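# step 3/5: fold
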Amino acid sequence: MNEMGDAWTDLGDGIMVRQSRAFAMNSTLLLAPEHTIVVDPGVLPSEMDDLAGLVREAEPRQLTLFFTHAHWDHVLGRPWWPQAQTLAHDRLAAEVRAERAGILHDIEALAIEHGERWTSGFEPFTPDLAVSGLKFMRLDPWRLVLRDAPGHSASQLTCHLTDQALLIAADMLSDLEPPILAGPCEPFRDTLKALLLLAENGAIETLIPGHGRVAHGRTAVLERFRVDLDYLDALEAGVRAAAARGQTLAATQEALAAMDYTAKDTALPWVEPFHLENIRFAYESAIRTRR
């Protein structure tokens, strides 16, 4: 943390992380006069204003907004920088079009919950730079490696800053929530294992999750991977055993609700529902496999 307050983490070299009051979501600023990148600006209007203030101070010649995936809390920032270039997965445009009404409803309700008002609306958009797969990109002075990261969202990308040995992990590797699945465990596991190879070889020394605290140092980074991979393995093993016994989904969810997972004992209201949904995804996959 630095003198700007508990919401901010200053990682040096122009890299700032701001954590929202909503869902502990992280927005990352890559500040440089040549080119500033704003990653997942959010979530509340006052927090967007805070981010915009630092961007103005940097006076960048170019500005890019990078959206790691299409989930509503990550795609709200364009009204604060309407002229900025946008960068995201090539699936993002279709996803935000399909979810427009839900995105607007969710942010309006969230703002009220936190004593603010959302007056900026939400308009679907097509990224100026739409990428997928493995993409090497230079936005001077930043060198980025963007990678498809399926498992949580079909439109998810991670961003690896190779010069800084830093990974912006999108909605993965949190200390506050378990892996949040969008389907079977295997795609999420494959994504983590591919990134783990980089971490094991020293290419990731700092990790910024979509939600939760920044991991500093190789040991802390590797621990995030271990915890999430262990969770996926335990989830699949428990569900397969339940399916083999002929248990229903409801019985399986009841039996596995108490299994250990990241931040299980916190009061965060969204954690347990996601865990139960993960059990459903794993159960449906196990049933299909048995047929």
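# step 4/5: annotate
The chain has a mean pLDDT of 95.
# step 5/5: archive (pending)
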